[in-house]
Design goal:
single chain; alpha/beta; 4-stranded parallel β-sheet; two-stranded parallel sheet; 18% strand
């Protein structure tokens, strides 16, 4: 989201970013406030998480909607929702309905896996009993789908989701952003491993979670080593103890 705003700023386009006060502290280190970058802030409070994350999110909906309704959005403007997770979908839905003359774009980050397969079994065939985290993810995406079915552009980073999104959003324009890895998966020639003196050939960066594909990395490196036996990989990140 911040990178998109930075690109727009470079094009002379005004950006209004709706976030929390702690979010602003993090974002402003990368994208400071200026004539083309403005932050609209929902204040958090010290005991916000006392009753849990869900309660924390619920308390943010009304302030977020109020902030959205105060914005002067006109034809030619764009309303962008950068995440399908609750409560982001609520103010985005309100804004899209109130300012119908504006353009609208919704980002679809990642499709929730099957409740009975989970992150580990979606492509391997393994099965499991549904857990609370997966049910929460499914409910988030169900709500997002229901609230964003109006005419809008849906943007995703994975061509695997194109068929699903075309069914879920039949009246919407679906855009898949190209990625480096897709070319390699089709067997195209690549200079990813040229002869050089660099210390590492492959770098994986992310949160340690099966959803991120870190467990697949071992098999990827094993296959690469069949052709490039001296390949060296580095893993950067942190997360679940079992995966670490």
């Amino acid at each position: 989201m911040i990178e998109i705003a930075r690109q727009f700023q470079g094009m002379g386009i005004n950006n209004v970013i709706l976030t929390t006060d702690n979010g602003r502290q993090a974002y402003e280190k990368i994208l400071p406030t200026n004539d083309l970058v403005h932050y609209k802030v929902i204040d958090t409070y010290s005991k916000e998480l006392k009753w849990g994350v869900l309660a924390s999110y619920l308390t943010r909906i009304i302030p977020a909607v109020k902030l959205v309704k105060k914005q002067a959005i006109a034809q030619g403007d764009a309303i962008i929702c950068h995440s399908e997770f609750f409560p982001n979908s609520i103010p985005a839905w309100i804004a899209s309905g109130k300012f119908r003359e504006a353009q609208s774009a919704k980002f679809f980050h990642m499709r929730a896996p099957s409740l009975f397969k989970g992150y580990d079994g979606e492509f391997t065939g393994k099965h499991q009993m549904p857990n609370g985290r997966l049910i929460h993810y499914k409910l988030n995406q169900w709500l997002y789908e229901k609230l964003t079915r109006n005419q809008t552009a849906v943007i995703t980073v994975n061509s695997y989701y194109k068929d699903y999104l075309s069914r879920a959003y039949p009246r919407n324009e679906i855009t898949v952003l190209g990625s480096f890895g897709e070319g390699l998966s089709r067997g195209e020639e690549s200079d990813i491993l040229p002869d050089s003196a660099k210390e590492y050939d492959i770098l994986w960066v992310g949160r340690f979670h099966a959803q991120k594909g870190i467990e697949d990395l071992l098999e990827v490196v094993r296959r690469v080593k069949e052709t490039y036996p001296n390949v060296r990989a580095a893993i950067v990140g942190d997360g679940e103890e079992s995966i670490r």
